[in-house]
Amino acid sequence: MSMKRVLSAIQPTGRAHLGNYVGAIQNWVKLQHEHECYFFIADLHALTTAYENTQNISEDTFQLAVDLLAAGLDPQKCVLFRQSDVTEHAELHLIFSMFTPLGWLERVPSYKDKKEELKGRDLNTYGFLGYPLLQAADILLYKADYVPVGRDQLAHLELTREVGRRFNHLYRPVFPECKELLTEVPFLPGTDGRKMSKSYGNTLPLSDPIEKTHKTVLAMMTDPARKRRTDPGDPAKCPVFTYHQIFTPNDKQAELAQGCRSAGIGCIDCKKVLLEHMDQHFAAYRQRRKDFESNPDQVARILTQGAERARKVAHSTLTEVKSALKLT
Ligand code: SF4
Q1: What H or E segment, with its residue span, contains residue 29?
Q2: How many CA atoms are closer than 13 Å to the CA of 163, on its beta-carbon side?
Q3: Which domain holds residue 120?
Q4: How far is residue 68's CA from residue 25's CA, in Å, rounded to a whole number?
Q5: Total tally of structural domains belonging to the chain
Q6: Which of 101, 126, 184, 257 is most buried, judging by how many CB atoms fall within 10 Å of its CB?
Q7: Same domain assignment for residues 141 and 249
């Protein structure tokens, strides 16, 4: 039985953080054993918001590749590559831009949300508006069966389907319909309790040395009502407890929740328990990270070989597209 094809990407904007790990990377590691997976580092997408400031993009790409490999992506089990190494992404995006109505892009809900989140930057560019169209090209180029998404990205996927249908209708059927692989990820707040976001400076980068991670966790916000050690707390209102729900075994969680509600434990003790479990969880990652980081040639080779494998599929789709357009 042939495996279903899965496609997903992550942007190299700064260092990957715990939210990326819990929300995407951990899932990729699992998916590579179940499907034919194409995962890429979306450096072209990074340009849509960081077009003025590209000096770190190459280092960020390398560091992200190290994070992905250290987290357990195996180049024998999945295709891992850098988007800009497969120029067919840009070419298909250009072709799609010819027949995609502007209104389709303007109504994508995340367009306004993201613009609001990044206000202060000049994002009145085609690249920013066309971001979901580049995503459609990424997905359709590989004729992906499934795309792992959170609920907030369903509108992007619907746009991808609409673009594929429009192409099939205007020229001839080339693109299958991709489906969402809905990923219910726990909401992981940032260290200050707000949404974890690089623009808020409240992330926990995966690549931080262990001492720095400890320092950040020990300074994390807790239940704001728990001002003194003797005040009882409410784990449901504490971002630290959300982390426990991911990294700490259930029986220990119950014990900590009870200690919090009765003021039997202090927040520092509670955070130390969390760090113990996080340290265990990331022990193998940390070792592999050291190994890959000290071997950039190996990482470059993995990305180059991944791009070669991806290009075969991308080239074949683009040949079909050009033939349908009579561009041959
Ligand atoms: S004891 Fe733990 S769960 Fe309760 S407020 Fe403090 S850090 Fe949060």
Answers
A1: helix 26-31
A2: 33
A3: 5-188+296-324
A4: 7
A5: 2
A6: 257
A7: no
Q: Does 37 reside within a domain?
A: yes
Do 267 and 226 fall into the same domain? yes
Residues 9 and 69 in one domain: yes
Q: Is the distance from the beta carbon of residue 16 to the nearest atom of ligand 1 less than 6 Å?
A: no
156 Cβ closer than 6 Å to some ligand 1 atom: no
DSSP of 37-100: EEEEE-HHHHHHHHTT--TTHHHHHHHHHHHHHHHT--TTTEEEEEGGGSTHHHHHHHHHHHH-
Residue with tokens 């508006």: 129
pLDDT tens per residue across span 245-280: 999 999 999 999 999 999 999 999 999 999 999 999
How far is 163 from 171, CA to CA, in rounded Å? 12
Q: What is the CATH number of the domain that holds 253?
A: 1.10.240.10
pLDDT tens column, 285-326: 999 999 999 999 999 999 999 999 999 999 999 999 999 999
In testing the pocket of ligand 1, which one of 217, 218, 220, 223 has its CB within 8 Å of the most ligand atoms? 223
Instruction: Please give the average per-residue pLDDT across 54-75, as a whole number.
Output: 96
| Residue 200 pLDDT class (50, 70, 90 cuts) | confident
Does a structural domain hold residue 142? Answer: yes
Q: Which of 78-92, 179-193, 204-218, 259-273 has the lowest mean pLDDT?
A: 179-193
Same domain, 156 and 277: no
Identify whether residues 181 and 242 lie together within a single domain.
Answer: no
* 140 and 241 inside one domain: no
Measure 240 CA to ligand 1 centroid, in angstroms. 6
Q: Which H or E run includes 5? A: strand 5-10
Using the mean position of ligand 1's atoms as its centre, give its distance from the Cα of residue 226 in Å: 8
**Does residue 235 line the site of ligand 1, with CB under 6 A?**
yes
Q: What is the CA radius of gyration of the chain?
A: 22
